[in-house]
TrEMBL record:
InterPro entries, sorted: DNA-bd_dom_put_sf, GyrI-like, MerR-type_HTH_dom, MerR_fam, Reg_factor_effector_dom_sf
Gene Ontology molecular function terms on file: DNA binding; DNA-binding transcription factor activity
Pfam families linked: GyrI-like, MerR_1
Keywords in alphabetical order: Coiled coil, DNA-binding
Stretches assigned to the HTH merR-type domain: 1-71
PROSITE patterns referenced in this protein's UniProt entry, alphabetically: HTH_MERR_2 (PS50937)
This protein's record includes keyword Protease: no
Organism: Seinonella peptonophila
Protein name: DNA-binding transcriptional regulator, MerR family
Coiled coil regions, renumbered to chain: 79-113
Keyword check for Coiled coil: yes
Cross-referenced SMART domains: HTH_MERR
Length: 276
C-alpha cells in the first residue's frame, strides 16, 4: 500500500487531483486510516489511474470515464462511447478549422487594409455605377448604426452578403436651428443581384462619378467632424480641381463588421470634382 504522496509521485498525478477523483467517486483510496486520516492506494490502482489519464487524453470527461471504467460495461457500450467521442472530436476539428480559416481571412484583410492606409495618397479616380440596397433618413449622426443595422438585416433576409463595403452618402440639407444635430444620411450596400425593395429600402444603381478625389484613411463613422474631409478639400483646391454637386460626398467603409478592431474603420472618402 502507498500513501497518497508516494502514489502521486509514482502515477505523476498531483495530490490535489487524486483527492478530486476521490470526491467524484472516480478513484477512491483503497484504504483510509481511521486514526490518522491518511489515504492509501494499492499497486493495482496504478493501472486504473493510467487508464483514467489515457481516456482524458482521448477527450473523455470524468463522468464519461467513470462509465467506461464500470465493471459491468459491455463491449457494445464501449464501442458506442468511442464512436460518439470520435464524432464529437471530428466536429470540434471542423469548427476549429473554420475558425482558423476566419482568422486567416482576417489577417489577410488587416494586412491589405494596413498597406492601403500606410501607402495612401490622394488620387482622382473614376467611380463606377453600382447596384445597391439603400436607406435614407434625417437622423443624428450617432444613430447611423441604427440605419446600418436595419439595412443589413433586410439584405441578409434576401440572401445577400451584409459584409460588403458600406457606402455612406452625405446629402446636403438645410435644417431648422433647433435641429442642427440632424444630418441627411443615406446608407447603401452593394448587391450581387436585384432584390425586392420595401417602404424603407430602395434598390437602385448608384450613378457613376466620372472624377472623384479619393483618400483612404482611418475614420470614426460616428463623429460629426472628420479631418480627412478638410484635408481632401484643401488638396482639391491646391491641385486645380473644384468640388461639384453632381453627387453627394461618399464614404466607403472598407472594413467589414466582423473585421473591426478598436474604434476606427478603414474608409475611402470620395468627393466628386471637376478640373478647373
Amino acid at each position: 500500500m502507498f500513501k497518497i504522496g508516494s502514489f502521486s509521485k509514482m502515477s505523476r498525478v498531483p495530490i490535489k487531483t487524486l483527492r478530486y477523483y476521490d470526491q467524484r467517486d472516480l478513484l477512491k483510496p483503497a484504504m483510509i486510516d481511521q486514526d490518522s486520516g491518511y489515504r492509501y492506494y494499492s499497486a493495482g490502482q496504478l493501472l486504473k489511474i493510467k487508464r483514467i489519464i489515457a481516456l482524458k487524453k482521448q477527450g473523455f470527461t470524468l463522468e464519461e470515464i467513470k462509465q467506461l471504467l464500470a465493471e459491468d460495461i459491455s463491449f457494445p457500450h464501449v464501442k458506442q462511447s468511442l464512436a460518439e467521442k470520435q464524432h464529437e472530436l471530428t466536429e470540434v476539428i471542423k469548427e476549429a478549422q473554420r475558425q482558423l480559416n476566419e482568422l486567416d481571412t482576417g489577417l489577410r484583410c488587416i494586412e491589405e487594409l494596413d498597406e492601403q492606409v500606410s501607402s495612401s495618397s490622394i488620387v482622382v479616380r473614376n467611380v463606377k455605377k453600382q447596384l445597391v440596397a439603400s436607406i435614407r433618413d434625417q437622423i443624428p449622426q450617432v444613430e447611423l448604426c441604427l440605419l446600418l443595422h436595419e439595412l443589413k438585416q433586410y439584405i441578409q433576409l434576401q440572401g445577400e452578403d451584409e459584409n460588403r463595403p458600406m457606402h455612406i452618402l452625405r446629402h446636403q440639407h438645410h435644417h431648422k436651428r433647433d435641429h442642427e444635430d440632424m444630418v441627411d444620411l443615406e446608407v447603401a450596400i452593394p448587391l450581387a443581384k436585384e432584390i425586392p425593395d420595401s417602404d424603407r429600402i430602395k434598390i437602385y444603381e448608384l450613378p457613376e462619378i466620372p472624377q472623384a478625389a479619393s483618400y483612404v484613411h482611418l475614420c470614426d463613422p460616428y463623429q460629426t467632424a472628420c479631418l480627412a474631409q478638410s484635408q481632401l478639400t484643401t488638396w482639391i483646391s491646391k491641385n486645380g480641381y473644384r468640388p461639384t454637386d453632381q453627387a453627394p460626398i461618399r464614404e466607403i467603409y472598407l472594413t467589414a463588421d466582423k473585421d473591426i478592431y478598436g474604434k476606427l474603420l478603414t474608409t475611402e472618402l470620395l468627393i466628386p470634382v471637376e478640373k478647373l
